[in-house]
Amino acid sequence: MDKYKAIELEKELKGKILNDYKIIEFINNGKSAAVFKAEKGSVFFALKIFDNEIIEIFGHEIQTKRIEQEIALKNHTINNLVKIYDGGNTTVGTQIYYFIVMEFINGLNLKDYLQSKTCTQDFILNILNKLSITTEQLLNQKQIAHRDIKPENIMVKEDGDIILMDLGVLKLVGVKSFTDEEETSFIGTLRYAPPEFLLRKEEDSIEGWRAVNIYQIGATLHDLIMGKELFSDKTPYTNLVIAIKDDMPKISNDSLSFELQQLTRDMLTKDWKKRLELIPQNRITKAISIGNNESNSFSDSIEEIKKKLLKNQAKFDEIDKLERDKIELRNIQKDVAKKLSNEIDICFDKIKKENICSSIKKSESFRFDPDTKPTNSIIQNYLYELQGDLKMGFPRNLYIIVRISNEDSNYSEIKLWGIFPKFLRPLNIENPISLFQELAITDQKYNYDSNINFVTIFKGIVDFDKYLSEHLILQIIRFISRALNLAEKQVLEEIQNLEKRVKSNESLFITIGTSGNQNIVIDSM
């Protein structure tokens, strides 16, 4: 319903009684309805009246079912979901009106709120937290997908809390929807739809709709971070469709944390299965916790190894807009892959200069078996060896695997894993595949519990953000710190052994990895 029609409807109904609710004034309008402030028994309500012309197109039976579906949520206990009180149809004069009665909320919808406010990190994290909890409860308790999460459908109350509104296109999971009976036409709001929902290839399951929720919440976070609508520069309609399918939006705001921006970037991943992989249910909880304590976490982690971290980090150059021509895209992919590889080398060089290890070696790029299959991605794997000795707290060397994957669109994924093997001798990193095979064989031969332990250092979709290298350095330092803390007992034992040998006049040799084959399990960062 356009604004003009909504104003005309206000003139027609203002002051009149609709099913015991007195129409007071017009509040807002959407595509299919207008919302009015109404009063019943000195209590205010929000009364949504649907556009009769649209009802005639889709049929009165469909509209009745939609209203019945919303009324089914009448007694829900989900805190940040709009409360439904009544609904149906009634006659005023000679005209039949279909309506829904909801709680009245003093405040602004989030889109209007953004016109006059700059969002703080705490405000954004609160919205992320409430939307995540609300949509998860709606899915798990009611088996319902909202399908239209966007700033316009989120009310910001006077106390700063939020309410998720507009249940007009909700869907029961696994049940054919009567609002889009063939489930082939797009419904909801195009700008905030993930590619699979745009193309109507979403999976009708809890996990499938969770992936849609994650994207739509991420799209809402984009608007809060960037202060503008997602793909606001993409017009006309066809360019917006192409952008939704292919383009990763730019997300960068110096006043907000890297963790929050990285989370949002991962939530907007095009492939819904990879989206679920990058955003497991505990990822958002962890991001909120880190976001609320980030400054202390950063400084405390650095203090474990160094008092100071160099601040002049190299900045990535902005990448020109990617052309969709495959040849040009491939050239850009190669260039991005090279720059990312160089940037990671720079990270390790900066760590080496801090003298927290004696040297750092790097293998040539290698491929795991799955990497040999045909793909449009450019994949690079490297093994870095961080050498140290007992004087530096190293009972043996540390190893880090770096995996860079450039997809066939304009974004890249980086993964870093740390390894603290039980081998006493330095490993040969010149042939990483043979090395991993050797580790597995040795494990069986000597019947160790485990010769090698992996811990995830970093995993996510990356952009050319100026804080990327600083963040990667911090994560690598955290890994080194965690490893050395866990190895401290072995180092102290070896020092005691060396003291005994000195006192007994035995030959003294201090070498890497002399502290035995005790297992050191780095189970988390």
What does this structure look like?
- The chain folds into three domains: about 100 residues, Phosphorylase Kinase, domain 1 (2-Layer Sandwich); about 190 residues, Transferase(Phosphotransferase), domain 1, CATH 1.10.510.10; about 200 residues, no CATH class.
- The radius of gyration is 29 Å and the shape is elongated.
- It starts with a helix and ends in a 22-residue tail after the last helix.
- The protein has about 525 residues and is of the alpha+beta class.
- The strands form four sheets. Strands 1-2-3-4-6-5 form a six-stranded antiparallel beta sheet. The chain has a five-stranded antiparallel beta sheet with strand order 12-13-14-15-16.
- The C terminus is likely disordered.
% residues in beta strands: 15-25%
| Structural category | alpha+beta
Biggest β-sheet strands, sense, barrel: 6 strands, antiparallel
| DSSP summary: helix tally | 15
Q: Using only CA atoms, what is the Rg? A: 29 Å
**Principal-axes shape call:** elongated
Could you name the ranges where pLDDT drops below 50 across 5 or more consecutive residues? 306-323, 441-451, 508-523
How many structural domains does the protein architecture include?
Answer: 3
Question: Mean pLDDT, as a whole number?
Answer: 82
State the end-to-end CA separation: 52 Å
Give me the side-by-side strand order of the main sheet: 1-2-3-4-6-5
Number of strands: 16
The helical percent reads 40-55%
